Amino acid sequence: MTGFPITPASPVVFADALPASCDLVIVGAGIIGICAAIFAADRGLKVVVCEKGRVAGEQSSRNWGWIRQQGRDLGELPIVMEAIGHWRAFEAELGDDTLGLRWTGILKASRTETHLARSAEWLRLAKPFGVDTRMVSRAEMRDMVPGAAVDYAGGVFTPSDGRAEPWVAVSALARLAQARGVAIREACAVRGLEVSGGQISGVDTERGRIGTPQVIVAAGAWSRLFLAPYGVHIPQLSVLSSVASTDPVPGLFAGGFSDGDYAFRTRADGGLTLAPGSEHDVFIGPDAFASLFRYMSTLRQDFRSTHFRPWAPRGFPDGWTTPRRWTGESPFEALRILSPRPNMATLNRARVALERAFPQAGPLRFRTVWAGMIDTLPDVVPVIDRVAALPGLILATGMAGHGFGIGPGVGRVLADMAMGQPVGHDLSRFRFVRFSDGSPVDFGAAL
Ligand SMILES: Cc1cc2nc3c(=O)[nH]c(=O)nc-3n(C[C@H](O)[C@H](O)[C@H](O)COP(=O)(O)OP(=O)(O)OC[C@H]3O[C@@H](n4cnc5c(N)ncnc54)[C@H](O)[C@@H]3O)c2cc1C
User: Fold this and answer.
1) Which amino acid residue places its CA nearest to atom 52 of ligand 1?
2) CB–CB of 161/69 below 8 Å?
3) Which atom number of ligand 1 is nearest to the Cα of residue 54?
4) Which residues are in the FAD dependent oxidoreductase domain (predicted)?
5) What are the residue boundaries of the structural domains of the chain, listed by start?
6) In whole angstroms, what is the distance from residue 248 CA to residue 245 CA?
7) What is the pLDDT of residues 363-402, one digit of tens each?
8) CB 409 near ligand 1, within 6 Å
9) Class of domain 24-435 (CATH, top level)
10) How many angstroms does the Cα of residue 194 sit away from the middle of ligand 1?
11) Cα(447)–Cα(278) distance, integer angstroms
């Protein structure tokens, strides 16, 4: 994992000159911004991507790398299925194992019949979409995960799911975008939008103005803070998710595996990327506090695995002292890369749970530990939509824990949206106004 985690000390690699004007500015060089740029350039648009820190410095390099159809919200499912085709095409174009793609499948194990029944119900609903997911019996589990000390009631397996190595994959895709003519500029915060005559006319960056009729905001955990000055309010919350890499562990399941207490996948170097199954931390800041009632039903489902921390760290998007309005230097320059400290207690619990389930794997040693802030919305699906009140503004945020794998699919959708063309999927589930038109929170069928 050379060069990981990405920090403000990491060298600036993408430093293209900024034009005075272009067709589309993308705020944020995570997987979503980079993929949107690739497809928009393919369609002939002149595209600029501005990144306050480094390409994929935040969530997009810190995630588990799972490319997962299994258990997905039914609105997202066709887009992630499309994304798999794009991942394969990128792989064919880049060659040389640049992305670290492996199609080794994802297996979700169930300790109880009740848990297993939930997976079976999801599969019943997902089958018409054409997924290759299948249920796994108790006996078959013993063959798929030999040496398991847990008598799993069964599981659900998706052979066509896969994974990539996120901290190299997104940079490789950014180079592909550059080769298509996209200008990418790291260490270049967008301070705000320029609005003329009620529509987008440009962006104000720390390196000057860029005129543009369209902006995609793919700013991850910063989107709420970025958009609020324009009256565009999204009830976004960010949760801290901790991860560890371990020494190589031979003989474990080769794909992605989860059992509720922990989740792992084998990395290209033979070690595991290991994380708690569902435990995460929520920092309380003014925005989280204001949105808490919207998250009540989400939190009720997940209460025991949520650790509340009353003080969002200084400079975080929802910090108590983070400015909500600014002129000149913005909060996006004050904190270039969101790099929270991992919660070691949750990581150690995951390690112990894995050692108990697979005694042959232990004792496990952590090589690197890290954390990322996952941006989410009350119904745990993103906003992918135009803002009717501000023509030229497109939102692509709130990807929850799913944005990496689906990234190329969302990127293609955004490019067609920017072109004003049909996007080929029903995006009503991801509409912006669902938070303000009285719609009840709909959790869908996701596992
Ligand atoms: C620990 C962890 C595990 C995960 N596991 C998985 C997984 O296995 N599979 C999966 O599919 N997903 C997973 N996810 C979720 C996935 O990583 C995210 O959904 C995805 O990376 C989001 O991509 P993004 O481009 O929307 O945001 P980000 O990657 O957060 O990128 C947003 C970028 O915008 C930049 N930015 C913000 N404001 C500005 C500004 N004003 N000007 C310029 N730049 C700005 C930020 O610096 C940042 O680089 C995981 C996430 C975490 C943290």
Assistant:
1) 63
2) yes
3) 49
4) 23-417
5) 24-435
6) 9
7) 999 999 999 999 999 999 999 999 999 999 999 999 999 9
8) no
9) alpha beta
10) 25
11) 12
